[in-house]
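The methods section describes the discrete structure representation at length, but only in general terms. Each protein is reduced to its one-letter sequence and a matching series of backbone shape codes. I believe one specimen quoted in the main text would settle the matter. An entry of this sort, consisting of the sequence and the corresponding backbone structure tokens, reads as follows.
***
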Amino acid sequence: MEKPSMKTSDFYFDLPQEQIAQTPIEPRDASRLMVLHKDTGAVSHHHFYDIVDFLRPGDCLILNDSRVLPARIYGIKEDTGAHVEFLLLENKGSDLWEVLCKPGKRARAGSRFVFGQGLFTGEVAGVQDDGNRLVRFSYEEKESFFHLLDQVGQMPLPPYIKEKLQNQERYQTVYSRETGSAAAPTAGLHFTPELLERIRNKGVETAFVTLHVGLGTFRPVSAENIADHKMHAEHYFMPSETAALINRTKSRGGRVVAVGTTSCRTIESVAQKEGRFQESGGWTDIFIYPGYRFQGIDALITNFHLPESTLIMLVSALAGREHVLAAYQEAVNAGYRFFSFGDAMLVL
């Protein structure tokens, strides 16, 4: 891919604070849906449950089944009783985790912390160059660490969401099953089991990939030229049945519809690496921006993203920057709700 001269500021738009959704809408599929036609830039307005009308028999829907870890935990320093907040970023294996600590000065190497009134403890094994800590957790052998996290952890909601989440499952998709994400693959939050059933009854097949969303996905693009931005690597897996479905869909002339930028990035990572789709797993730091040639997906279901983010750049690669920014302006004018708990867009 040629190095573009596009600037990060080319992806800026002005969003009123009151349009940043603070709570999820009920029911899930009652959110609004903007349909954007990538070839013409034409948009139309619907509800998410209308998405069935835009899918055709023979299409396939690829969903990310990653489940969000309740990764925000609050503990007490063993020797002083001082309070600390940990955000679990990445499992390094053997109960060793990369962790973001606040305040960091309380988490020097060798410091020990107690969580959940003694359910488990953590000891700082090292401090990385970026300030993140490596923490080894200890607990009773009969327990599972993930089970303990479910008891004491809180959802790591994005910083722009100020409201407390009443039901933690509303920051999970209804089909989530592989625990490991630091943030929800939010395009999937709009689906209900009933809506997925209606989609399948129409002759649209569904399958899953797993991409564990890291907080690096939401890191602001600080480079002036977007091509100088370095993506944070995230772990993905595409099972053989999903690869076979994508191959089958393409051979019969159907469309591969990615649910979310995470599913999109997984599909495109496998397409780049494998050529024809086959079972694949590993780490991807793929950065999709205008000029990218899509090899896997034909359409995308996604939320409305932050200005100057890698996510709005990905959508612009598929639909064209001018079309996307015009559609976003129309969404602002029409009072759409933005970001994680906001409304959805279908790019066809």
